[in-house]
Queue: 3 jobs
Job 1
Amino acid sequence: MRILLVNPNMTEEVTTLMWQTGRAAASPEVELTAVTARRGLPYISSRAEAQIGGVVALEMLADAGSDYDAAILAAFGDPGLLGARELFDFPIVGVSEAAMLTACMLGGRFLIVTFTAAMCGWYRDCVTMHGLDSRCAGVVALDRPIGPLHEVRERHGDALIELAARESRKRDAAAVILAGAPLSGLAERVREALSAPVVDPIVAAVKQAEALATLRPKKASQGSFRRPASKSSVGLYAPLAAILRGGHDG
Amino acid sequence: MRILLVNPNMTEEVTTLMWQTGRAAASPEVELTAVTARRGLPYISSRAEAQIGGVVALEMLADAGSDYDAAILAAFGDPGLLGARELFDFPIVGVSEAAMLTACMLGGRFLIVTFTAAMCGWYRDCVTMHGLDSRCAGVVALDRPIGPLHEVRERHGDALIELAARESRKRDAAAVILAGAPLSGLAERVREALSAPVVDPIVAAVKQAEALATLRPKKASQGSFRRPASKSSVGLYAPLAAILRGGHDG
Amino acid sequence: MRILLVNPNMTEEVTTLMWQTGRAAASPEVELTAVTARRGLPYISSRAEAQIGGVVALEMLADAGSDYDAAILAAFGDPGLLGARELFDFPIVGVSEAAMLTACMLGGRFLIVTFTAAMCGWYRDCVTMHGLDSRCAGVVALDRPIGPLHEVRERHGDALIELAARESRKRDAAAVILAGAPLSGLAERVREALSAPVVDPIVAAVKQAEALATLRPKKASQGSFRRPASKSSVGLYAPLAAILRGGHDG
Amino acid sequence: MRILLVNPNMTEEVTTLMWQTGRAAASPEVELTAVTARRGLPYISSRAEAQIGGVVALEMLADAGSDYDAAILAAFGDPGLLGARELFDFPIVGVSEAAMLTACMLGGRFLIVTFTAAMCGWYRDCVTMHGLDSRCAGVVALDRPIGPLHEVRERHGDALIELAARESRKRDAAAVILAGAPLSGLAERVREALSAPVVDPIVAAVKQAEALATLRPKKASQGSFRRPASKSSVGLYAPLAAILRGGHDG
Amino acid sequence: MRILLVNPNMTEEVTTLMWQTGRAAASPEVELTAVTARRGLPYISSRAEAQIGGVVALEMLADAGSDYDAAILAAFGDPGLLGARELFDFPIVGVSEAAMLTACMLGGRFLIVTFTAAMCGWYRDCVTMHGLDSRCAGVVALDRPIGPLHEVRERHGDALIELAARESRKRDAAAVILAGAPLSGLAERVREALSAPVVDPIVAAVKQAEALATLRPKKASQGSFRRPASKSSVGLYAPLAAILRGGHDG
Amino acid sequence: MRILLVNPNMTEEVTTLMWQTGRAAASPEVELTAVTARRGLPYISSRAEAQIGGVVALEMLADAGSDYDAAILAAFGDPGLLGARELFDFPIVGVSEAAMLTACMLGGRFLIVTFTAAMCGWYRDCVTMHGLDSRCAGVVALDRPIGPLHEVRERHGDALIELAARESRKRDAAAVILAGAPLSGLAERVREALSAPVVDPIVAAVKQAEALATLRPKKASQGSFRRPASKSSVGLYAPLAAILRGGHDG
């Protein structure tokens, strides 16, 4: 079973972090490949950047070929997810989608905890996009400068635990999602410190990708998620343009 | 990884069908054990029967011991699920919950198709219980006598395919869930006949159980999903009574 | 007019309390009979216990015969209510349902106040089950050990009043529901201390049972609330098994 | 127990019809008084007319004095209900509110059936105003000229039954509400012809008024449903102006 | 382009304030006419008063003739708006509707800030009436005596700014609406003091009226917003009675 | 007042059509400038294409400079809208957002009518993104090959009218939105043929842009819609990269 982890951000260290977390969670039969964006932004943290990062993700998926059983879109907020789901034949799961759906199985409502308030609005949009508002107890964040991404776990780990503990208790959250790629792997450490279960989005995404790969869902040939009709384009990344040209005859 | 499949119905043939479907979908490292109810009803098909079947499920889980990494509650409608989630330390997933959450990853809205209209209302309640109304394109059923349960797939397979095809097109459903244990395994056959992807609830449930087992969620020690306070009881199945007595000190 | 009050808990003192409160509210022509569970739990306070208590309620209703014009399911959270509504020919109302619907007629949103935080999650589930989330200003509870059930009113009455006063003001609640059978009758005492009207669930339930008895609703012979099809069963309480066997021919 | 039925329409025959239906449903201890509007419209059937009829209702309530234990606002759509609930010390229930809340206790979703399509939009607004959209299976109407109001039951009774039967089956409605004052009393006749239970709004309203009268809810002295602050006015009906002037000191 | 601003309150100073604010925002080609109620209340601040004020608004619109391209219903809470939309051929916009829809275009959720807590419940009803609950971050108010209406801006301006600043930050509101006619024009002053954009309802309403006037929407001749059928009436303001009599033949 | 109309599609004829429709609706003082995408797709008709088109829109806005008082994002579905709202200092409105918000002011629920079923799912996503599901009576489309875009109005006008007439009547829609840039200007012709009012998205967008330009909303300096923090990037269109680099210091 071959699973592709697409990091639409350009920070290699974060890809490595995600690959390590994902690899540890994957079944033995899974071959997990991770790719990092070669253009775009170091880290997506706004709606505008997600618009761009979503296209970068489509480009990376177009590059990937069709040798994968499933792909993971590895940026919280799921930039480009719905479009990717139209274009490609293999199933694709977003890390925030995977985290939220997995958290739903722990009962009641989940709390999303992240490291910078700038992302709260965009993350709330993502909850709404997935129709999960009634399962979400809120999106909360630290309110402080964060420093380098790959040090977020070390520098702010304790403050995140305290925030998660306080808010999950206050809101009766049945599960906590640690959101944002730089927090990958933190869930394990937080485990003992919190009295609610914690979901690591990358762990969730790898297992959901396995689920989809096993299900082998047929590509829709009707409705609004089938391949779009063939389109010519100008000035797009060539492999993506080829995918768009390869759509159905409408 | 040890996963327990709990069939709160008494029909062994259906348990076998589910075990076979589940076994084929499970990762190699999974040991899948299936148990059939020894009291209760041959098949749950109403809210009243689900009330009873939910207690039977709790009894079966109390019997199971703590050697499992995750359990599957294998009756569509998820009878007893939320209560089980309070009482037991290992994670538990319901088949309808698993099917719906998995279907969400195929985009847009899912259609639930079942074999008898008697279950539509109860299944709609289940969609609401999981907060997924906005992701559900409807619950539809055949309107005819169904005969023996283990023959449902053979006798009514074609009619179910036709129903699923017509309604999924009409409602622009991005995925179809074939609901009801007697339909286990039918998804594979339906695959070629439909132009939307199909979700087999047992396949979904096995993979979601694997996801939860890998996540190893900590048992909540706060909030409304922690173990209830210790309770004495009268006239309950002894292993279940023991579980209830073993709750926290409040 | 004969109304049956079913307490699916085993604490006789609480049944007595509810009967007294209900009797004082009933119309002169009402004959109010109260029965207490002979198996199960002293007091239901979790989803798991409600699963069990709901079956006990079905058993008690099966015992009751058909001489009643309406029945009250007298445990907040309404365990077994929807199933009971399928099985029996006389109308049945739950105390939480009755309290919430009655509170709706006082305008705006109601606040649910109870004596232990353990029940908040389950009560919120109940609000959702009845589709009344938009009418509910919240579920709040004391956060302290409660001691014996029949002393809750005396020991914690003042703290409950203070909690209700503070939260109803803060949330602009148009009515307060004092939830939990041990609080029956407290509403009268709270009356002068609060500036919002208070709903006693037992008073509400008796009046709603009268409403249903007067309406004499025809038992549904179509749709998902008609009697389920005839079912054989194993190991169930005999009178309940007889009811299940007596369903329609499907 | 004194209950006032306020018909904000000017058609005496309809008041009589409602009084008769209500009287038959009321408890023996109830004294039911009905009043008919002396200004306004023969029958409210639009939002604009409801705006006017709502003021007429306030005027009639201002005329009524304070000798009542509860009042019924007897026009489907509940014109003026929320305002009345602020101004007056006794509890007030609307017939559509009463019908819908009572129907909720019959399970699942209710269907509203009326005799002219002109009212469907306004009635849907009323469902939304009460926060009951998720409990409503739809609002349906005959599409034909109706003739004199007091003959609606005779002329169109059969067509209404056919419509209610067809749509309630199609939408799996657990109950049918016959909406519109001219249909008062029709529920009894429809009873045998439908396979779902039927709610007569006047019967429901009388019983809900009894429920409120028994509850004796304290008039809110906080929040948005307390008496508005004292106001002078110009050109209003004198007894209503006096009520407005008699508000609190703010 | 002729636009009519209807103030259903009797306070001329407030009409003047609104006219000045509106005139400054209107396009050069707009002729803005403002009228003040000659009966009713000095200022609407409850649901009951809105019931009355809504009829006064219908009377004022009936007086206005048909020489207008659009009308503004200039009382926050939009009393009488939906009825007016049925009766009159020119388009009509409410100030709260205009403010909320305009605020939606600034992203995310808007916060409604007003000067007295008495109006919060009624304003929340208005948000619900327009189906905008998911776009509203809350309705907040000062909690103090307000004094004369035309001095509200001066006396309480600073406190309102502080309230708006604190609550908009806390709730991540993307826009602030200053609600209530006496606050007209305050937005300009608040502008520099807040870090979120501010919507003046009168400015929004004038521009929305221009939008509707330009669109020249055809008066509906089908459905629930067409003119109601012709009705005779008793005791209504003559020009309004004439409008009601002039409806279609139904 | 300078308004920029951004067509993120590459079809000049459609830009011309929109400019003409918009110019006719604009106030005299408005200078309306329209630009056409120089890269991307001839016409956006799927979620994937909207992901790309949204970035093209951001690029075009980055090119535009800051001399505009407001901008219109002129592709139904509003690709890139929320991101644009973060990045730029002038207000931006989407054509679908403008059409829907304007339609809300015509009462009740609007119907969206378009020319190809492929867009229905994406357009429904857009309704949800704006929180307007409860105001939308549905999204309907012709089900046939459409031919060249600039001939859609001529070839399919009659079929679209028939579809709009049938579905608006059936669903009691208070307004009809003709969605999709190639339908610009069709509303005027449809006007006489339909019995519900029709909204042309370009007309609506121009007037909403005027409303925003008049409001001159302050750029948020707090919360999730302020300018994102300064970011370096690789391989992006230089003017867009400059905008991203120019963000705040975080």
Job 2
Amino acid sequence: MTSAPRQDRVTAAVLVIGDEILSGRTQDGNSHYIAKYLARMGIDLCEIRVVPDIAEEIVAAVNAVRARYTYVFTTGGIGPTHDDITADAIARAFGVGIEENAEAIAMLLERIRPDQLNEARRRMARIPLGAELIENKISKAPGFMIGNVIVMAGVPMIMESMLDAIAPKLRSGARVLVETIDAGSIPEGRYAKALAALAESWPQVGMGSYPHFSSQGVRNQIVLRCREAGPLALAKEAVLAMLSGLANDRAPG
Amino acid sequence: MTSAPRQDRVTAAVLVIGDEILSGRTQDGNSHYIAKYLARMGIDLCEIRVVPDIAEEIVAAVNAVRARYTYVFTTGGIGPTHDDITADAIARAFGVGIEENAEAIAMLLERIRPDQLNEARRRMARIPLGAELIENKISKAPGFMIGNVIVMAGVPMIMESMLDAIAPKLRSGARVLVETIDAGSIPEGRYAKALAALAESWPQVGMGSYPHFSSQGVRNQIVLRCREAGPLALAKEAVLAMLSGLANDRAPG
């Protein structure tokens, strides 16, 4: 995590709504996509939650995270079927009503013939009162933003289009700069103490060590993260010097 | 979600501990692996959370989920570097001490020469008091189980090995049976009302509708989930009959 003062940070949580993720049927790729997207915007993603298609669970999770972070991004549950309960749950979380939205109906009519706009499809135009619509270029049924909560589809292509539509309207922050240092096969246990000392010397630089195990053995990377280029560059030099100063050590880490 | 009575269910949460997931550096695949694994064991995964490498966040999340579910599976943060703080956070969450564990040291010595068992590597043998070790066949540093919380490595190969080691000791449940029905290009909006009626008629069968959008258009799947084969088969027949009874509808869903 970055060390910038909390009041300067723009923070976020992702809330993935979907039984299909929890049952193992589908692998969620949306939260990784959003994580990378927010990193580019300088928004610190602080938490991801996956919750089932149960209204009480969605309401509790939305209210827990919206109080803590600048933004909450939800994915899933805004289609026309009975298991799509996100819009109603969001309205409940905010304690507001939910009604068919004329602008959303107009969006649906760009893709659906009036005689085919049945009750189920009209459900996709039910929007919590006070929300702002988010355009859906792919299949027209909109997402929405209410308060600091951004409600998007679960289908990746549509979610990505909605994120592009809402992103320009959001606060962004200074982007975290990242340096990845390949520690090769030097075991973590060999450099852990020295790295901890460097992490203490550079409190504004986040330092993490990430092993990758394969049949070829262990490879480690040290990742440095900071919003300021100066300390980051100096910390990188210090880590490189630390690594090159280490005697070769064949013990596993 | 299944409709089995709550007291009969074996439930779980996954807690992924790692800045590298939140920053977008790494895509978490562990939670999907665990989701599929638990489904095969008849354990209902009810929640996934990803939290940063911050002790207070880990403690709060562990305590929130361990009170709610039969089991909690954590991944990440049990290596030798300063950013590996999971064991200490778990001890804090349980209000117990943490000490170097002789059995864990013995495990490390299967892979690390005694003269190379430095302070950082010894950290991997610090285990909350009262925990039971979980064998790590890959790199020896063990995971552990304390109360209902199972603490595993973040490196996928090691996590998978630990899951195999602990699984036989866990309660399992009746496996949820799944039927996936291809609705083809029939739009969700065309069958949503009829599907909702069937979902109401078969309360013991979970029914979800999952669209897949591609450049070739929309394809939908209806997924039925139930622990009993009888109702599942009858519900499947009913859904198939419903779909085949639908007139062809070219409007997008």
Job 3
Amino acid sequence: MAIRKEMIEVAVASRKASRQMANLSSGIKNKLLLQMATALEAAQKQLKVENEKDLSRARENKMAPAMVDRLVLTDERIGAMAAGLREVAALPDPVGEITGMRLRPNGIQVGRQRIPLGVIGIIYESRPNVTADAAGLCLKSGNAVILRGGSEALHSNRAIGTILQQVLQDMDLPQAALQVVTTSDRDAVKELLQRDQEIDLIIPRGGEGLIRFVAETSRIPVIKHDQGVCHTYVDAAADLQMAEQICINAKVQRPGVCNAMETLLIHRDIAAEFLPLVTKSMGAQGVELRGCREACKISSELLPAAEDDWSAEYLELILAVRIVDSYEQAREHIETYGSLHTEVIVTNDYRLSQQFLREINSSVVMVNASSRFSDGNQLGLGAEIGISTSKLHSFGPMGLEDLTTRKFVVLGDGQIRE
Amino acid sequence: MAIRKEMIEVAVASRKASRQMANLSSGIKNKLLLQMATALEAAQKQLKVENEKDLSRARENKMAPAMVDRLVLTDERIGAMAAGLREVAALPDPVGEITGMRLRPNGIQVGRQRIPLGVIGIIYESRPNVTADAAGLCLKSGNAVILRGGSEALHSNRAIGTILQQVLQDMDLPQAALQVVTTSDRDAVKELLQRDQEIDLIIPRGGEGLIRFVAETSRIPVIKHDQGVCHTYVDAAADLQMAEQICINAKVQRPGVCNAMETLLIHRDIAAEFLPLVTKSMGAQGVELRGCREACKISSELLPAAEDDWSAEYLELILAVRIVDSYEQAREHIETYGSLHTEVIVTNDYRLSQQFLREINSSVVMVNASSRFSDGNQLGLGAEIGISTSKLHSFGPMGLEDLTTRKFVVLGDGQIRE
């Protein structure tokens, strides 16, 4: 019950602070983010001392080295957090924009104005930089934010939170606009997820287990940043050299992220020519290929794929390969096994390119480009808070605008309804 | 378990049909809606026979006359359903629109294209016209729809569904694009709300109990159409005659709907003049006034308001009245007791009107107009599927566009990421 009381206090304070934050000018919000950047840089030593507490516990607990690496705060990483805050400060403020102001027949003017969502909760794991990155985006868009990181980064997250809160206080802004929940009580998240009276949106960032738990437990709307089973379909009318380069880039440039290619679909007519080409260059990059029966016939270097391979998000140097009879079969495959993240067609057939863009309803669809571009920065949103794979509110990379909503504004002159 | 299997079949068939519906041209979709309108009109007799079954059961069960009235299908009401479908057919199709196409520094072009949500579930009560109205909006926006009405309208809803499905079949479109769930098993809704793999959005329409049940049970995103505790704040700088007319209209023109005024806030400086004015004209319309202590001092005709009155959605001829010291106190009141639906200021103070529009973050905010305009048709959206009081995805009256989402489209020429 103590934890419930504590989380209610956190949520209520956040709701109260959100009212003040919603009405700050862009100038004040930008100043806030810039001063937060400076404060983080000034606190490098202190941050590293706190971070060391997390690291030594991680080593004691024999955490995997890759996980430990994510936890580490170096001067460079602290600098990157500060740079991130400055970048967000430089982005245009979505709040306040009025669009579509129209005169109705009775003389009232009706438009829609962009406003902050209110209170955003971020539930995340591992990387302490999320604390500063998510705070920057939420505050710039006029929201209050409640941050709950993993217990493995408790000291680091708390230290970052304290530094950022101090800046709020120095600027006479409500400290509750940014709260880091650092209690070790595991029920804290459960309690927060019940506070639908105060919290407007929950964004979970982390592994599948975390996302499922949050989605199933929350009474607050959740935007899932789920897996990316991204496909590249190389059509019969593709420029094969271009296709090869796009495929290599999509698979190996950074295999551990959600916009990396996981399945390659190849049209039958060019398979005999293209598959050996791509097998060779993928092999040179250390990629393990797992093919359908027909693909294995063409190239003996492929391992046979199992049913599970078609829906696998490998996040490593493994690629599933399937030969298809037609675009329609490729589409069917994507609809059956895809995760609505990002799909690419490589083709020089105009009509087919248009059909692909029209018919494939994943969050990002591309013609003749690497799936690695599926990212808020690359697509021109500026910094992103993540990539939504659910369709409500926001689909695909989410930028500042996605942390806002719109209200209707009506300007009348005494009109009443007949 | 039988009901689970049945609902899985409904959901899977809907998902499959949604793929075909998503790619229909506007021309085909409009033709579909127009033919559905004609089919409903042609089936008046049959519809009334089925409706009579619901009505006689309702009378047997001694349903309240107001509830029975909602159930009745007359020729006029069937005509109104047909007219509604024709109206939606005439609206612009939001699907396919590409906005913000921009060239990125590396030469890829990036834009956002509007696409259907996929499968929409509507859970509603009483009025059988919702079956046709909601179906029209969902189909026009390229979605498949699953409709689950109340058991009290089972025969009427089933008959409407059968007629509309026949039109789908006649046009060689998938019948599963529109499914009416008429099993009497009460677990049907519970099972549907678990189908987050197939259903993209649930919209509950009905009383508080239904909405709360759906929101708490659903694993699918829900857009709540909750209560409207709408405020009108009459400022010291208001034109009092205008204020009187707006208040009367907002309270009595149709008291039983969510955009009717429930609380009147009056600035202290004009209370002695305005309150007797409004008391007299409200009294003439049969409105019962419940006032704060100060209001009761000014006018002896007011009953004393209890704390509950400030958050009441009366939906009848009762009005809560409070005298406030300032705009700030009015704002505080709205933030404490409001339901984020619609708030109105009556004032001739320019600066204050702007401040009200900026600071009050309900779904619709108005200056000098009746809250009764808070409706999709009045605000220029065309027909509406409801009024959302939650901020995610859609806030305020929801039209066709709110039944869609946007994907990113990327046109490349072989670009890869450095």
